[in-house]
C-alpha cells in the first residue's frame, strides 16, 4: 500500500507506514494455517480495502490543500550562467545575453573601455579589483608597442540590468526575490587610463581589445577572456495593436498584451516607462493603461521557466533563485505568523538553490557594532527601511563549504544572507564561512 512520496509530501510524514506489510507480519504469528488463511481474507480483503480507501481520500485532500497553497511567484524565477562568446547559441530560447551588446564589439559606446574580463576569484580576494586595481601593459599601434596603464572596474552595466529588472517587478506589482548575481559580480571592465609614453590620458580612438597587452602578473591565472553572462530573460518588443480600448475618463487608453498563445509556465513583465500609467495582470493577458493611443519601443520581459535548454559549450553551473517546494514551505508562506526558530530558519536556507555549495553550521546573535563594515549584498539598490541597519542586532549565520576553495562559495553566502534579509526585518543578517 505504501507508495513513494512526491517531493511536496516529504515534509508531511516522518516515515511512510505500510499497513499491508504490518498485517502480513502479524498474520505470520498465527500458528494454525486455517486460522491464518481466514484472518488473511478478513483483514486484507475487508480491513485492508477500507484502509486503502481512506489513504486515497487523504491523498486527495492533501493534493487539494497543496494546490490551494500554490505560490504565485514561481513563474518569475531567474537563472544566470556564463559561456564563452564563441559558444553562444542564438537558437536556445531559454538563455539570453544579459546585455545583448556584449556579443558585438567590446567597449563600444563607453569612453576608455577596451574590454571586459571574468575573474575566477573569491569575493574577498576580489576586493582590490573592485577598488580599482591598476596594471601596466602595452598598446600596439602602427607596429610599435607603447607602454600604458590599465584600470579594472566592476562592470556597472550588469548591476544596472538587475536594478532595471527590480523596477520592472515593482511596476508590475510582483514580489521581488533576490537574483543570484554571483557570476555578474565577477565581470570587470578594463579601461585604458594613461599612456606612460606620452604622460597623459589617452585621447581619440580607443585601441581594439586585441591590440592591448595587460601584465596581470600573478593574477593572470584567474583572468578569463571572452566570457559573457546569460540569463533566462528575453526582451520582447511591444507595439500598438488593435486591442486598444478607450478608458471612461476619455483621456487614456488600455492596451492588451495577450498571453493565450504563450507558454503558461513563463512569467511576463511589462517594462515601465513615462508613458505607462498602470499595469494590470489579468487571466490570459496584461493590460497597460496609457495616454498614448499609438506607441512603439515598449518592451515585455519574458522569464523562461522550467528546464533550461542545453547547448554545446554551456558547461558552467546554473545559478538561480529557485526554492525547493514542499507542503511545509507553502503552509509557512501562507501563514501570517513567523516561528523564527532555528528549525524554521534552517528550512528557509536549505530551500534555496545552494545545497551543492553550502551546508548550514549554526548561528549566533550579536550586539550591533558600528566598527564592523557591512558587506554589500545582492540587493544593494533596496532602501534600508524605517529603522537603520546599524541599530539592529546581528544574526550571524555560519556555513561550511561542500566544495572547499570554490571561488563562488562566498558569493553563495551573500545570496543566502541577501534573501533572508528580505524576510527578516528585526535583525541585520550576516554570513560567515567556518
Could you please describe the fold and organization of this structure?
It is a single chain. With 434 residues, this protein is α+β, with helices and mostly antiparallel strands. It contains seven helices and 20 strands. It has helices spanning 19-27, 33-68, 127-130, 156-171, 327-333, 342-351, 409-423; strands spanning 79-84, 96-97, 113-119, 134-141, 144-154, 187-194, 212-214, 223-225, 227-231, 233-238, 244-246, 253-258, 267-270, 276-282, 285-290, 298-303, 319-320, 358-366, 393-401, 427-433. A six-stranded antiparallel sheet has the order 7-4-5-6-3-8, with no helix packed on it. The longest helix has 36 residues, at 33-68. The chain starts with 18 loop residues before the first helix and ends with a strand.
Please report the number of helical segments: 7
Large-scale geometry: globular
Oligomer state of the chains in this structure = single chain
The unreliable regions are 1-14, 196-203
Strand order of the largest sheet: 7-4-5-6-3-8
Quick one: biggest sheet? 6 strands, antiparallel
Mean pLDDT level = 83
Distance between the termini: 45 Å
Helix content: 10-25%
Number of strands: 20
Radius of gyration: 28 Å
Counting helices, strands and paired strands, the structural category is alpha+beta
Question: What percent of residues are in strands?
Answer: 25-35%
Order of helices and strands: HHEEEHEEHEEEEEEEEEEEEHHEEHE
